[in-house]
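This section describes the prediction task in plain terms. A model, or a person checking by hand, is given the sequence of a single protein chain and must write out its three-dimensional structure as a string of tokens. No templates, partner chains or ligands are provided. The sample shown here is typical of the held-out split.
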Amino acid sequence: MPVAIVTGSGGLVGSESVRHFVGAGYDVVGFENDMRAKFFGPDASTARTTRALVDSYSKEFRTLELDIRDAAGIERVFAEHGNAIELVIHTAAQPSHDWAAQDPQTDFAVNANGTLNLLEATRKHAPGATFVFCSTNKVYGDLPNRLPLVELAERLELPEDHRYYKGIDTTMSIDKSTHSLFGVSKAAADLLVQEYGRYFELPTVCFRGGCLTGPNHAGTQLHGFLSYLMRCTMTGEAYTVFGYEGKQVRDNIHAADLIAAFAAFHRAPRAAAVYNIGGGRQSNCSMLEAIEQCQEIAGRELQWSLGEESRIGDHRWWISDLEPFKRDYPDWDITRDVREILREIHDRNAERWVARA
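The expected answer:
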């Protein structure tokens, strides 16, 4: 049986990857040490998801409590499976701007050094394996904030004649901008993945994601805004919108659509590929629009307030240009928009997220 390695296998994208590739006939080895609980508290723990995966796929899935900073441990696993490894999906990360500023050493070690450990193990033991990296649009820093945005009633928007109106592509520079420390560590990892593709001719891809979401997302205040927004709406918890009067725009891609993109690339990989990936023009919203949709779906009003200061490196507007990926992989497309995603998040968590007395 072919082997797929999935890092961060208990997280949103990692767990969706496990399910997909077990279904595709792979033996899947997951690396998961539940660092999300350390980063964001017990509500963000991936332990529940990991247990569910083990229960569902006891023969096809093996989870290892392995930290990607542990180069020797990673080396042992890759040496054990060798050329049977056909796919590496790297989703493990420290994913928060705010948390990175609290502990830059850990942030960089996880995001950059951890990625280097995985790339080197792949090069030594499974050089033919497709290496899929979950990068981020934060590699562009705050350059998107210099776009000539127009303020509408509920959102910021680009003029229709602007080159990026259909979405931002990879021609945007990553230089001369403020990234946040998280953006820097992910940019370092992104460049490493590209360089291993070019220099060693490995089949690698960086997917520079917008907002990745879905019903299995353990949303918290610092990461996973659609899930956390719906949770707060359903439970009555207070929600704070950080800056931009709530008119900041994000595109949102369902994890299943993202994994479908991984699978499409794996079927026809190339070296050092880079794509911006997200909901694009098919699935995006402002904070105000997302709040309105959450309230309609949940049948409850959200208790929210507006914080005047935005977070460092945060984007005022981001929509990904999906056309480059669609041209290379024409069988792939977005299947769920924001409303469908929010409905799924609501329905999947209805028994867990109950209104507090």
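For orientation: The CA atoms of residues 44 and 218 lie 5 Å apart.
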